[in-house]
Structure formats: structure tokens, C-alpha cells
Design goal:
The complex is a heterodimer of chains A (about 375) and B (about 120). Chain A is built from 12 helices and 13 strands. Chain A has about 375 residues and is α/β, with parallel strands linked by helices. Chain A folds into 2 domains: about 240 residues, Aspartate Aminotransferase, domain 2 (3-Layer(aba) Sandwich), CATH 3.40.640; about 130 residues, Aspartate Aminotransferase, domain 1, CATH 3.90.1150. Chain A has a 7-stranded mixed beta sheet, with helices on both faces. Chain A has a 4-stranded antiparallel beta sheet with strand order 8-9-13-10. Chain A has a two-stranded antiparallel sheet with strand order 11-12. The longest helix of chain A is centred in the last third of the chain and has 39 residues. The two termini of chain A are about 40 Å apart. With about 120 residues, chain B is of the alpha+beta class. Chain B has 5 helices and 3 strands; from the N terminus they run αβββαααα. In chain B, helix 1 packs across helix 2 and helix 2 runs parallel beside helix 5. Chain B is globular, with a radius of gyration of 13 Å. The chains are: A alpha/beta (about 375), B alpha+beta (about 120). The structure holds pyridoxal-5'-phosphate.
Chain lengths: ~375, ~120
């Protein structure tokens, strides 16, 4: 696997076992809804996937609805729940660091259904407190949607405590767990949420497939109406092949994620030490508390070097893949990461930030290679730097 | 993505550095995106004999000043002044929308150098 790939939060390579499982089912063409033998085989594949996914999340199989991925799951949880209060000004509590698929779905509810929203701020480390959620509650609060793990910083929010508050006041609680599932133990019973989104391509499965956990007894208005697949909640002939991959990815995650997280935690420390040795000016963005952050995610700023330029250099010279906190858009406006803004970074700090995200194929030697490449990149930019 | 010209110049910028005794200094900054270029120019016999710069900015803006320096060295100021915007555009190759601001940087470089009085 490519040891120069440091963008696992964007997407992950497909695990060879996942690929093999999908290959094996490639010519299986039956429609799971058909009653003949071809259909039954396909139905069995879907059932198997559901069983693996339910095991990973510790939920009932009937509580899992497959979707086209994290964005659809987020959209559906938000719109499918809020549509019952159309025009009745439902209130939503969310955070200021949500993924666009949550933010934009909420904005849609504001536009179309006159929803009002409390965008809870996070502290300088990227955390929000359960107390802040409790304080934001109103009689007309109908939905709390707060992400479990943040894609840019890796910070984990206290979803269990927030869900407790939601339950106590009878408010529907959704969490976007796309960056958490398959990386840390995500147990929906323990979390106590009503709905939880996940996506297979973030944990070595195929893209375009994921799901929503929906607690027994909760109902959502479908986003996709039709032939009644997925218990009538999400119509459309199942993406059987992708589901085979998702199932296998879930099965592997259960076996591997704990050990992977331990290894990545060590790599992150190695990386942090190496970067500080390169330049004491390099700063880490967001919380560093290992118990409240994803092991594989590190967000840093390198003063006086543009993150975009650094990433371009590392890519062209070394084939190293990173992700950046800002991009040029035009002369008149800049596109800066909303998450980094939310933790209070200045524009220049955001422009010099990059995200390093590692995963199960990252090796210790890759960290060493990365640090060597960083050293050369910094030399390159130092030569250019105006004093 | 970066086109071949931009990638090549960005990875291997020409004429980086500072002139000890420049005849002209040009500074360009974009307050919005924060790109900054400090350029020193030396003239000899009515031509641009040398040019060095330091730059902070996105990959494309660094490539832009490198492309500019390579073009300008050896030219006279009136040749700089006569360069058409079509020629400038061609120098950078095809740009993506978010790289277009570098065309403005390039034309500002041309304009600044075109208006210095020749030594
Ligand atoms: C936190 C978070 N939520 C949602 C998504 C969207 O998931 P998908 O790519 O499966 O639509 C992503 C992926 O970028 C994510 O990081």
C-alpha cells in the first residue's frame, strides 16, 4: 500500500480482503427483492452485510438502513426528521464544525421550513461541552445534530453526555459518525443516540455506500421514495456489490481497529516530535488529548509557508498526499476552512495549515520518510521566504 | 491541479534570491490572499541584466514570478511595456479559476516593471 498517502480522512484505500469479497460477488446479478434463486442469493449478500454492520455498531439489524454514504445519511436524518415540523419553526442545535452535508441540510431546513438554529461554538481545541447543549435547549428544540469525530481536527465530542441530555428532554439526537466508525469503538447502545451516520469508504470499504442507524421505534420521512426497499425507508434496488464490500469492511474493522489505533497513536507522537525537531515554530491545531482525538489525525500550521504550496511541493516531489486548510478562490475572496476559523485561528494561520491523516497501512518507515520530505520542503520554502 | 508550466516553475523556481545593489525594487502584495513578492532589478545598457526575488504565496503565484523573471531578464523596459495581455496569459498556460488571480499578479509585475525609468 502507498506509504506516501497521508489523506486517510478524505478516503481510504480499499482493503484487499474487501476487494476480494467484492470480486467474488461481481457477477452476482440478482435483485434482492426477487423471489427466485438469483434474488435470494443477492438478498443473502445484503443480509450478511447488515449483520456485519450491526455487529460493528452494536445495534439490531432492523435498525440499520443502507444509503449512498455519509452525505445522504446526514441529509436524511436531518430532513427526514424535521419535515414533520414544516413551517412550525422547529429549533435545531448543532455545532459550528459540522461537515457541509450537515450544515447545508440544516440551511435547507432554515430556508424551506423556517427552522431556527443554534450553532454552538467550540473552544480553541475544537471541543464543545454537553452543558452548552443543555443551555441551548428550548421548548421548540426538535433536533440535536452533533458530529462524533471531526474530519479536520480529529476531535471527539461528548456524544454520550449530549445524548443523555437529549433523551431527558425528549429531543431527537443525530450524530455524524462518519469519521469515527471503523476507527474507534462506536457502540450505539452506549452512545444512546437516535440516529448515527457512517460511510464505508472512510474505513477501507468502497465509496458511495454507507448507512444510518435509526433507533427502534423512531421513524423518518424517506428521502428516496419508491419501491419500498430498506423497510420502506430508502427505496431503490440495493447496491449489492458495494454492500458486500461494506460488510467485509465492517467485519475487518471489528478485528483490527483497536490495534490500528494504538499504532497510529504512537505514530502521531513520533510525527509531533519529528516536526518540532524540524522547526519549533510548527504548531498543532486543535486538541491533543489522546483520549478525545482520533489517533490518525493531525492538523498543523507551519508559519510563513502556505499550506497549499507545501502540499503541492510534497505531492510533486515526493508523491506525498496531504490535505489543506485553505485554497485560493479568487482575488476578492479566500476559501478558508470553517473548522479552523471556529477554533479561532487567524486567516494567515489557516493558510499555513495542513492536515496529516494516517490509517492502517501507514508504517513507521512512512513517518520517517514523511519527516525527511518535510525537511527538504522547508528548505525549499526557506530559500524563497521574504525576510 | 497545476499545469506543466506552473508545476515546473513552482518546483524549480528560477532566479530566487536578493540582489545586493538593485537599481529598482518592486513589491507586490495581494491583501486578500496574502501573496507577497519582493523583486530586485538590475539594469545594464538599457536592458534588464538581472532580477532576483523572494516570494510568499500559493504555488501558482511563486511560479508566476519565476516565469516573469525568466521572461524579463535580457529584455528592455520598452519590450516589457509592449507585452500584450494575450502574451502574458500564454506565459502561465491554462489556469484553473482559483489560480486566475495569478494573472493579475503577472500583469501587475509587468506594469510595475514597465513604468520604472530606465537606467
Ligand atoms: C465528518 C464527515 N461527514 C460526512 C462525510 C460525507 O461522507 P460521504 O463521502 O460518504 O458522503 C464526510 C466525508 O468527507 C465526513 O468527513
Amino acid at each position: 500500500m502507498d506509504g506516501r498517502y497521508f489523506d486517510y480522512n478524505a478516503t481510504t484505500p480499499i482493503d484487499p480482503a474487501v476487494a476480494a469479497a467484492m470480486m467474488e460477488h461481481l457477477s452476482e446479478y440478482g435483485n434482492p427483492s426477487s423471489t427466485h434463486r438469483a434474488g435470494k442469493t443477492a438478498k443473502q449478500s445484503v443480509r450478511q452485510a447488515r449483520s456485519h454492520a450491526a455487529d460493528l455498531l452494536n445495534c439490531g439489524q432492523s435498525e440499520l438502513i443502507f444509503t449512498s454514504g455519509g452525505s445522504e445519511s446526514n441529509n436524511w436524518a436531518i430532513k427526514g426528521w424535521l419535515s414533520q415540523w414544516k413551517g412550525r419553526r422547529p429549533h435545531i442545535i448543532t455545532s459550528s464544525i459540522e461537515h457541509p452535508s450537515v450544515q447545508e441540510a440544516i440551511r435547507y431546513a432554515m430556508r424551506e421550513w423556517e427552522a431556527s438554529v443554534t450553532w454552538l461554538p467550540v473552544d480553541g481545541d475544537g471541543f464543545l461541552s454537553a452543558e452548552a447543549v443543555a443551555e441551548a435547549l428550548r421548548p421548540e428544540t426538535k433536533l440535536i445534530s452533533i458530529m462524533l469525530a471531526n474530519n479536520e481536527l480529529g476531535t471527539l465530542q461528548p456524544i454520550r453526555d449530549i445524548a443523555r441530555i437529549a433523551r431527558a428532554s425528549g429531543v431527537f439526537m443525530h450524530t455524524d459518525a462518519v469519521q469515527a466508525v471503523g476507527k474507534i469503538n462506536v457502540d450505539v447502545q452506549e452512545l444512546g443516540v437516535d440516529a448515527l451516520s457512517f460511510s464505508a469508504h472512510k474505513f477501507y470499504g468502497p465509496k458511495g455506500i454507507g448507512g444510518l442507524y435509526l433507533k427502534e421505534g423512531r421513524a423518518l420521512e424517506p428521502l428516496v421514495h419508491g419501491g419500498g426497499q430498506e423497510s420502506g425507508l430508502r427505496s431503490g434496488t440495493e447496491n449489492v456489490l458495494a454492500l458486500v464490500g461494506l460488510g467485509e469492511a465492517c467485519r475487518l474493522a471489528r478485528e483490527e481497529m483497536e490495534e490500528t489505533a494504538l499504532r497510529l497513536d504512537e505514530f502521531k507522537r513520533l510525527l509531533a516530535a519529528g516536526l518540532t525537531a524540524l522547526s519549533p515554530q510548527i504548531k498543532q491545531n486543535g486538541g491533543r488529548d489522546a483520549s478525545r482525538t482520533l489517533a490518525g489525525t493531525m492538523n498543523i500550521q507551519i508559519p510563513h509557508i502556505r499550506g497549499e504550496a507545501l502540499a503541492a511541493y510534497l505531492d510533486h516531489r515526493f508523491g506525498i498526499a496531504l490535505s489543506v486548510g485553505s485554497a485560493c478562490s479568487s482575488n476578492r475572496e479566500k476559501k478558508l476552512s470553517g473548522v479552523l476559523k471556529a477554533i479561532g485561528l487567524q486567516d494567515a494561520e489557516i493558510q499555513s495549515s495542513v492536515r496529516i491523516s494516517m490509517g492502517k497501512y501507514t508504517k513507521r518507515s512512512d513517518i520517517v520518510g514523511f519527516l525527511e520530505a518535510m525537511e527538504q520542503a522547508m528548505e525549499h520554502f526557506c530559500r524563497l521566504m521574504p525576510v | 491541479m497545476y499545469n506543466d508550466i506552473i508545476a515546473e516553475h513552482f518546483m524549480n523556481p528560477r532566479n530566487i534570491g536578493e540582489l545586493e545593489h538593485p537599481d529598482e525594487r518592486i513589491s507586490i502584495g495581494n491583501p486578500i490572499c496574502g501573496d507577497t513578492i519582493h523583486l530586485g532589478v538590475a539594469f545594464k545598457d538599457g536592458r534588464i541584466a538581472d532580477m532576483k526575488y523572494k516570494a510568499y504565496g500559493c504555488a501558482t503565484s511563486i511560479a508566476t514570478v519565476s516565469v516573469f523573471s525568466e521572461f524579463a531578464i535580457g529584455k528592455s523596459v520598452s519590450e516589457i511595456r509592449k507585452t500584450s495581455s494575450e502574451d502574458m496569459e500564454a506565459m502561465l498556460g491554462e489556469l484553473e479559476p482559483n489560480q486566475m488571480h495569478c494573472l493579475d499578479i503577472l500583469s501587475e509585475l509587468f506594469q510595475s516593471l514597465g513604468t520604472v525609468k530606465e537606467v
